[in-house]
Specification:
Layout (H helix, E strand, L loop, with lengths): L3 H31 L4 E18 L2 E16 L2 E5 L12 H8 L7 E6 L7 E2 L8 H19 L1
Antiparallel strand pairs: 1-2, 1-4, 2-3, 4-5
Length: 151
């Protein structure tokens, strides 16, 4: 038998589920919009490799992050961009990061996707994220809310 506290907690869990689902769909829509950004040719200026300790797969690991600076012209002006993707590109092994960067030597011509509203915002590889992790979290919150009410 559910009491007032159970209903209150269930209500909070339903709100959390709704927020998680809304965040998942909003992020997906924002990233899908990036796929429609205009594309111009750019030139790789310099590449590099950063490394830092991060919690990854439940352990602190040294993660390797490729960096790429590129030049492009958009909106009537020249720009320098450094975003590779709208999602983090991380490698646990340095050789994999180096292999990734080998596709972008200095002087390489690349496709640059830029925001037509703010041409200084650009990236090389737009990706649409998988909404499942947040939707799974929303589902767990909903199941917990139902259990609080039923039990």
């Amino acid at each position: 038998m559910a009491d007032g506290l159970s209903y209150g907690l269930a209500g909070i869990l339903v709100v959390i589920a709704a927020v998680l689902a809304a965040m998942a769909f909003a992020e997906r829509a924002r990233c899908r919009a990036m796929l429609t950004w205009p594309v111009v040719k750019g030139t790789v200026a310099v590449t590099g490799l950063d490394a830092e300790r991060r919690v990854h797969r439940h352990a602190a690991r040294l993660m390797h992050m490729p960096t790429i600076a590129y030049r492009y012209s958009a909106g009537g002006a020249d720009h320098i961009g450094s975003r590779i993707s709208n999602q983090n590109i991380l490698f646990e092994r340095e050789d994999e990061a180096v292999q990734f960067l080998s596709r972008f030597p200095s002087g390489t011509v690349v496709d640059v996707h830029y925001n037509p509203v703010a041409p200084n915002e650009a990236l090389l590889q737009p990706r649409v994220p998988d909404p499942r992790p947040r939707l799974i979290g929303a589902g767990i919150a909903l199941v917990a809310a139902v259990l609080l009410i039923v039990l």
